[in-house]
Amino acid sequence: MTPLEFLAVVLPSPDNGLYCAAELTTKKKEHTFVQKIEEIEPTVGKWVKQNKDIYFALSTFEQSGKRTADNARHIRSLFIDMDGYETKKAAALALDGFLAKTGIDLLGSPYIVNSGGGLHCYWPFTEDVTVDAWKPVAENFKRLCKQEALSIDMTVTADAARVLRIPETFNNKAKYATPRPVRILAEGDTFDFDDLANHIQSQLKNAPPPLPPKGKTDLALPGKRPEMAGHGEVIVGKVEAHAGAGGDFVDFGEVGVGGSG
Predict the structure, then answer these.
(1) Domain that holds residue 103
(2) Which of 70, 92, 149, 171 has the most neighbouring CB atoms within 10 Å?
(3) Per the domain annotation, does 239 fall within a domain?
């Protein structure tokens, strides 16, 4: 799966707000806002060559130049940033146990990205939803992770303006001896928003009031997305298999967003 194919799965449909990519290495923290996902390619390729840490926003935005929650328009995924684990295997085991205990694994498997430091996990929806409809579900998901002692960055999961690392770029944090590649470890499934939201709420021991009807868009939005049949393999097996194979990383700066890898 290419980075563009991945972004097409986890991000809202085209013509439904502005996409955003950002570098967070310099004091300037440069952002670019575009109409189509593929339009980030020249800027991201330039940033890779400049050894910058590169991210994409999970929402689409109403206005350019303003990556804030109040400007976020639509969103298409739940996501977590797993940290606090000594190894990728330990994180994968924890995730696998969490999904099995909560029964979320019966709905499908998440997409998993090795961020160079931890695991970024995504549960993409089959349709776009408004940020207002998404927010209480994301808060519930965060509560469920805390309830089940899954170690995640608690500032990430319910933040509509959040950015996460783009696959096939590099994690250039100073604490690492050499830059670490950001790789897609596992392709997953897509999820019905209502089914996922209701299941998450059913697993909470202190469940909040029922969620209001979702805010689906009524627009006929273009954009082809991959169709995933069936559930993925066991998460731990996916992570170990990728590590054992050494991956097939392709330099974003050489092949661009659409490069294979």
Answers:
(1) 3-246
(2) 92
(3) yes
What is the per-residue pLDDT across 106-115, written as a single tens digit (0 to 9) for each? 999 999 999 9
pLDDT in tens, 66-75: 999 999 999 9
Length of the chain measured in residues: 261
Residue 260 counted as domain residue: no
Query: Which tokens is 49 given?
Result: 């060559």
Q: Which residues contact 146 (CB under 8 A, 6 or more apart)?
A: 154
**200 part of a folded domain:** yes
Q: pTM surpassing 0.70?
A: yes
Report if residue 125 sits inside a domain.
Answer: yes
Burial code (b: 16+ CB inside 10 Å, e: under 16) for 15-44 equals ebbbbbbbbebeeeeebbbeeebbebbebb
State how far the Cα of 109 lies from the Cα of 121, in Å rounded to an integer: 10
Q: What is the predicted pLDDT for the residue at 151?
A: 96
Per-state percent for the chain, helix, strand, coil, to nearest 5: 30, 20, 45
CATH classification of the domain holding 164:
3.30.70.1790
Structure tokens at 260: 């294979």
| Total domain count, the chain | 1
CA distance 81 to 72: 20
CA distances from 234 to 43, 110, 189 (A): 36, 11, 13
- Distance between CA atoms of 51 and 68, rounded to whole angstroms? 25
Q: Which pLDDT belongs to residue 248?
A: 34
Least confident of 84-88, 135-139, 140-144, 257-261: 257-261
Residue 230: exposure state from Cβ atoms within 10 A (0-12, 13-18, ≥19): exposed
